[in-house]
Amino acid sequence: MSEGHLPVGLPTPPGYHTVVPLDRRRHAGRAPDPASIAGFQARLTSVYVSVPELPLAALDYPVVFVADRSSGEYLPVALTALSPGTNLFAPDGRWAADRYQPAYVRRYPFCTVRVDHPEGAQTLVAVDADSLQPSSEPLFDAEGTATPAWEGWQHTIDQLEGAYESTLQLSRALRRQQLLFPFTVEAEGASGRRYRVPDLFRVERHKLERLPAKSLRDLARDGLLGPIYAHLLSLSRLARLLDLEERRH
Predict the structure, then answer these.
(1) Which pairing describes strands 180-188 and 46-48: parallel, antiparallel, or unpaired?
(2) Nearest to 73 by CA among 162, 167, 204, 182
(3) In sequence order, what are the residues at sequence separation of 6 or more whose Cβ sits closer than 8 angstroms to the Cβ of residue 68?
(4) What is the C-alpha to C-alpha distance for residues 131 and 34, in angstroms, rounded to an integer?
(5) Closest Cα to residue 234, out of 76, 14, 39, 88?
(6) 3-class state of residue 9 by DSSP
(7) What pLDDT, in 10s, does the model give residues 150-201?
(8) Which of 167, 169, 122 lies closest to 21 in space, CA to CA?
(9) Which end of the chain is more exposed for a tag (fewer CB within 10 A), N or C?
């Protein structure tokens, strides 16, 4: 599919600029630009995480939920800062080696988009348009054939795409059980600097604990109870995030 067939006004993932379908011939001889990747990482204030990786992400970041405008779902994100346009875990564009790096970050500059087609909806691999540069180790050769350099990217793309359904399953279960509540992070550091992050959602623990036994069993059966408790435990990381913000100033 050519760039011209991409629907006008297609929502771009947070942090991306202009998303176009990946074309093995048009993008032959190119590879991701390290400077583009660094710039992308440095400005991510929050990062989508999938259900399978949520327990790992919760060890390092506060994991909350946000309303996704394109899908209408409430999706989990890891907060990486309390100030807009900054990432406390990649201030110079390189992710901290001792912190979990979400697949959403590892996948950049690629993503997947769902588009309508006469034969049914299709999922396409897309790329941030200006993030590829000529390379001696390209992803695709002059004939458009994938090289070994593409295999790692393909694995990460497939991994995240495969986790999408379980993430939607969590979102819909939380809505069905009416467990999500809006909240705003408001904090004041020792320096007197104030921080505010609105439009977030979290699980109310007392609501979870009062669910009927069958509902709890269903969540456990579907592998969702663990990620929910990981989210709740992760909220204690907000204090550490505030501390990191204060150290930055």
Answers:
(1) unpaired
(2) 167
(3) 74, 75
(4) 8
(5) 76
(6) coil
(7) 999 999 999 999 999 999 999 999 999 999 999 999 999 999 999 999 999 9
(8) 122
(9) C
* pLDDT tens per residue across span 135-155: 999 999 999 999 999 999 999
Helix (H, G, I), strand (E, B) or coil at 79: strand
- Contact between 197 and 187 under an 8 Å Cβ cutoff? The reply is no
Cα angle 60, 65, 69; round to 5: 130
Q: What are the pLDDT digits (tens) for 53-85? A: 999 999 999 999 999 877 789 999 999 999 999
Provide the 10 A C-beta neighbour count for residue 199.
10
Can you count the helices (H) and strands (E) in the chain? 8, 10
- Confidence (pTM): 0.91
On the question of a cis peptide bond just before residue 11, with omega within 30 degrees of 0, the verdict is no
Q: How far is CA 205 from CA 22, 189, 222, in A?
A: 43, 26, 19
HSE-CB of 105 using CA atoms within 13 angstroms = 27
Does residue 192 contact residue 246 with C-beta atoms inside 8 Å? no
Q: Which residue has the tokens 């379980």?
A: 166
Exposure string (b/e) for 29-40, b if CB count within 10 Å is 16 or more? ebbbbeebbeeb
How many CA atoms lie less than 13 Å away from 69 in the CB half-sphere?
Answer: 6
For the chain, helix, strand, coil in percent to 5 are 35, 25, 45
Q: How far apart are CA 52 and CA 67, in angstroms?
A: 20
Helix, strand or coil for residue 185?
strand
Task: Find where tokens 């269903």 sit.
Answer: 218
DSSP code at position 146: B
